[in-house]
Write a structure and sequence with these properties.
Distance between the termini: 20 Å
Radius of gyration: 23 Å
Strand order of the largest sheet: 1-2
Largest sheet: 2 strands, antiparallel
Strand content: under 5%
Helix content: over 70%
Number of domains: 1
Shape: globular
Number of strands: 2
Structural class: mainly alpha
């Protein structure tokens, strides 16, 4: 039996609904990045100002946060519930990427969302692109590209697993695959163009680096930035510990069941053997 028969009410529907919300946000985010093809000013105006605007409202933000935590909780619960980890390759990829996403996402959320909420740091594309391209080009930028790829592949596998038995899906699968490949490519091109734009403007416009670059050393803003860096490191440790607890709980449950459950063989004229 691959999975213990302990299902939460409406679990599958909730997983699909929250996954669709997160994938819709990811798609808007990728298309927003793609507007960087027209350089940084348009990325800010079109991407952040229009495509991401619904997600910046109280309703959009609440739906996104609720979907994120609910989908993550259900993912860990399903992982715990499994009797073993033998599964098809596609499902294994989805599981592995899903476990990796929070680890990669925590620095980005801390830098952007928590930075704005706690310290009112600028959360515009100007600061974010500057940070990845000029402040952290060897760490932050590759991590961000890897995060984008991980999120998109995980979500695309989930969409495929959900739709694969629909009669119309086979007819549209190639078109959907083309869109699934094209959107992240455009996003990467947009980020590259916007990053190159920020790189040039930091050298040609005297106030650009001061306005959007890292805060000067010794200032309160620099201290806040250091605090955020320490915070996301601790959040990553906490997440790794949470995943480890889930695996340990699985091991403990399976060990307990092996010790307490068995097959009882009754002989007609003899003792029962477990």
């Amino acid at each position: 039996m691959p999975v213990a028969k302990v299902n939460l009410p409406g679990e599958r529907s909730i997983r699909i609904a929250t996954g669709l919300i997160l994938f819709a946000y990811a798609a808007c985010h990728f298309l927003s990045h793609a507007t960087g093809v027209f350089l940084l000013d348009n990325m800010e105006a079109l991407g952040r100002g229009i495509l991401l605007a619904p997600w910046r409202t109280p309703l959009g933000r609440s739906a996104l946060i609720a979907a994120l935590f609910t989908h993550g909780f259900l993912g860990l619960y399903v992982l715990y519930r499994r009797r073993h980890l033998r599964m098809p390759a596609l499902e294994a990829w989805q599981l592995g990427l899903g476990l990796l996403i929070p680890l990669l996402m925590i620095p980005h959320i801390s830098n952007v969302r928590l930075g704005y909420s706690l310290y009112r740091f600028d959360d515009s594309y100007y600061r974010i692109v500057y940070s990845y391209w000029l402040t952290q080009p060897l760490i932050g930028l590759p991590r961000q590209f890897f995060l984008l790829l991980t999120v998109w592949i995980h979500g695309s596998i989930g969409i495929h697993m959900w739709l694969r038995f629909r009669p119309w899906y086979r007819h549209w699968s190639l078109a959907l695959l083309g869109a699934a490949v094209l959107i992240p490519i455009l996003a990467v091109i947009g980020i590259n163009n916007a990053g190159w734009d920020a790189f040039l403007r930091a050298r040609l416009e005297p106030g650009f680096a001061a306005l959007h670059g890292p805060p000067p050393s010794g200032t309160a803003a620099a201290s806040h930035a250091d605090h955020l860096a320490r915070l996301w490191e601790w959040l990553q440790v906490a997440y790794v510990a949470l995943v480890a607890i889930v695996f340990l709980a699985r091991y403990g449950r399976n060990w307990h069941e092996r010790r307490t459950r068995g097959v009882v063989v009754s002989h007609s004229n003899g003792p029962k053997v477990t």
